[in-house]
Amino acid sequence: MTQHSQFALLGKKRFLPFFITQLLGAFNDNIYKQSLILAILFKLTVSADRDLLVNLCALLFILPFFLFSALGGQLGEKFDKDELIRKVKFAEIFIMLTGAAGVLLGSLPLMLFSLFAMGTQSALFGPVKYSILPQHLQPEELVGGNALVEMGTFLAILAGTLTAGIMMASSAYAGIVASSVVCVSVVGYLASCKIPHAPAALPSLELDWNIFRQTWLTLKLGLGQRPSVSRSLVGNSWFWFLGAVYLTQIPAYSKEWLYGDESVVTLILTVFSVGIALGSMLCERMSGHKVEIGLVPFGSIGLTLFGILLWWHSGGFPQGTEPHDWLTVLGHGQAWWILGSILGIGVFGGFYIVPLYALIQSRTAENERARVIAANNILNALFMVVSAVITILFLSVAGLSIPQLFLVISLMNIAVNSYIFKIVPEFTMRFLIWLLGHSMYRVEHKGLDAIPEEGPAVLVCNHVSFVDALLIGGAVRRPVRFVMYYKIYNLPLLNFIFRTAGTVPIAGRNEDLLIYDAAFKKIAEYLRNGEVVCIFPEGKLTADGEINEFRNGVERILQENPVPVIPMALQGLWGSFFSRDPNKGFLRRLWSRIQLVAGTPLDPELANRQFLQEQVTRLRGDIR
What DSSP string runs through 169-189? Predict the structure, then answer.
């Protein structure tokens, strides 16, 4: 696999125009929304309760996601995505012209109408935004592309919020805000004109204009996907639940627990947003340029840990005669623990959300992808509304403090993700594989692009340690079905991983004929279904580091299932803790460098066991 930086995508026409379009859209949304909130609080003369109007703004922006996400999903399937994006962005210009008029005239009804229209435009854009990425990106670029989009989105939200505050501080705020939102929308439309063609996935789709019926059907479609996708939708929406709680409480937390002014709110928002951006950027490197859902449990653990730390370090902050500014807050050591916890929540939030988006995109049928993402947007909006209700119940009814609320949602995170990982144990399995490959070993890959992207194939490899299957499974982008000796398959703890991965236990013919015959039937079934099967033809672990004689089971498999064969070799595992080296030790060769090498695919008619053993031996070389 060619290794590359995700930032290289910013130099590609198939990604950069879309990235700029999305970035400017999020930036503009938050300039306008935050300017409207600040205008209500500080600039406009209003007869209604100001807090009520601020909550009305939040409702008007989120309501369109309930009403129009399903329609956006249908439009994203029926029409060319690039053309649809241009039409949505063109409509944004007129929405912002209306909003600009409202700001200049000081008309609150006109500004609120524009906010609702802006939410509608975002609801229609959302399903197209994420469903277009798999059409323009290679599979190995999908995680990096999603990471860049998440990074750009959160930094744009932060920049829009800060820019609105700066603009509203001016006495001539109306003209500045009005001209800015219109100009940004025009530039966003011009950027969208450069997005390459992305053809419709389902042009024959009949549009259903009954928004309530279609919203229900869209949710059923999303939650009716395979468990890995449907539970990823739940996990994705849970992330927005957590984010809504933290972001909503940051202003009050800064004032009541850090005794800070507006600059402290800005500081915490900046740290949180930078944390998510940093976590998103690290995802591609930590996942090896593939959709690595093993990072999701890692992210979940971090969200809980740093949420608890934020609760633990809150309280007892020194209070001054005047509200602290951000520099004063940084002068207290306790503040660094609090900011570190908030940064950790952001970073691990990035680890959590990026692989989920990539999984949803990669495992959803192309002609359903936009509607599934629309279902995700509906669920996101629903979870954010529920977060507001639960926050009110905990703070106002149960009488919890804000830090105690952070503790409760951190513990709720354990419960929600335990449910997700129980229904889809693949998350836990991939996490354990990822952890092994990033703790005891440093695994390098060579020639793995020889494994076909789709269709059946048989991998043959030497057998050095009890964790060979885990290391290979963590390296190969496609799911691999392993065939292994049943006594290794039954090892405690590892058995959970092997069962979850669909591993096939096998025994010698003379040892257990039932297990032996069942194994070959299962292998044939996997290959008929176009999957990748990996076997260790030696039939046992090496006892001296050398390759044992290949058995004839591999020939039977290829005779019954003539599919391409890819020889592979593991280098550097002999002497590690999980090998049978008599001189091994737990600390010996800890963090050792392991290499997995793949050779050229072979024609099944030529791949007898002697020839395959020669190929694997050659690939392994002298490195045991």
Answer: TSTTHHHHHHHHHHHHHHHHH
Helix (H/G/I), strand (E/B), else coil: 106: coil
* Residue 468 DSSP symbol: H
Cβ 524 vs Cβ 535: under 8 Å:
no
Task: Tell me the pLDDT tens digit for each residue of 99-150.
Answer: 999 999 999 999 999 999 999 998 898 888 878 888 888 877 887 888 888 8
Amino acid identity for residue 82 in this structure:
D
**Tens-digit pLDDT profile for residues 473-491:** 878 877 889 998 888 888 8
Question: To which residue do tokens 């809504």 refer?
Answer: 244
The answer to whether the CB of 275 falls within 8 A of the CB of 306 is no
CB neighbourhood size of 117 (10 A):
19
For the CA atoms of 86, 91, 93, 97, the dihedral, rounded to the nearest 10 degrees, stands at: 180
Q: What is the pTM of this model?
A: 0.78
Identify which of 372, 375, 373 has the alpha carbon closest to the alpha carbon of residue 215: 375
Q: Structure tokens of 524?
A: 């044939």
The secondary structure element, H or E, covering residue 216 is helix 211-223
Contact present, 108 and 52 (Cβ < 8 Å): no
Using the 8-state DSSP alphabet, how is residue 325 labeled?
A: -
Bigger pLDDT: 434 vs 535: 535
List b or e across 272-302, with b for residues whose CB sees 16 or more CB atoms inside 10 angstroms.
Answer: bbbbbbebbbbbbebbbbbbbbbbbbbbbbb
Least confident of 65-79, 277-291, 581-595: 581-595
Pairing type for strands 565-571 and 592-598 reads: antiparallel
Lowest mean pLDDT among 103-107, 279-283, 549-553, 601-605: 279-283
pLDDT (0 to 100) of residue 289: 62
Per-residue CA distances from 465 to 400, 440, 444, 479, 580 (Å)? 52, 13, 17, 20, 7
pLDDT at 23 over 50: yes
User: CB burial class (10 A; 0-12, 13-18, 19+) of residue 51?
Assistant: exposed
In terms of Cα–Cα distance, which of 98, 87, 100, 88 is closest to 31?
100
Buried b / exposed e along 592-607 (16+ C-beta atoms within 10 A): eebbbbbbebbebeeb
Closest CA to 562 of 615, 613, 606, 517: 606
Under DSSP, is residue 148 helix (H, G, I), strand (E, B) or coil? Answer: helix
DSSP of 28-53, one letter per residue?
HHHHHHHHHHHIIIII---SS-HHHH
Do 523 and 502 form a contact (C-beta atoms < 8 A)? Answer: no
Cα gap 87→192, rounded to integer Å? 9
pLDDT at 589 over 60: no
- What CA–CA distance (Å, rounded) separates 21 from 18? 5
Q: Mean pLDDT, to the nearest integer, of 290-298?
A: 80
Q: For residue 168, how many other CB atoms are within 10 A of its CB?
A: 21
